[in-house]
Amino acid sequence: MHVQRVLVWMLIAVVFTVALYPAVNWLQSHVRWCRRSLATLIVFLVVVLAFGGILTLFAVPLAEQGTRLAAASPDMIADARAGRGPVGVLLERTNALEFARANEERIREFATGLGTPALGLFRSAVTGIVATISIFVIAYLAVLQGPKVIEGTLALFPPRRAERIRRVGGDCTKTVTGYISGNLLISAICGVLTYIVLKIFGVPFAELIAVFVAIADLIPLIGATLGAVVAGVAALIHSLPAAITVVIFFIVYQQLENHLLQPVIFSRTVKLNPLTVLVALLLATELAGILGALLAIPVAGVIQVILRDIWHHRSGQPDAVPTAVMDAEIQGNAARATTSPTAIHSGRLLAPDEEPRS
Question: Mind telling me which residue stretches traverse the membrane in this protein (predicted)?
Answer without folding.
Answer: 6-27, 39-60, 121-143, 184-202, 208-229, 236-256, 276-307
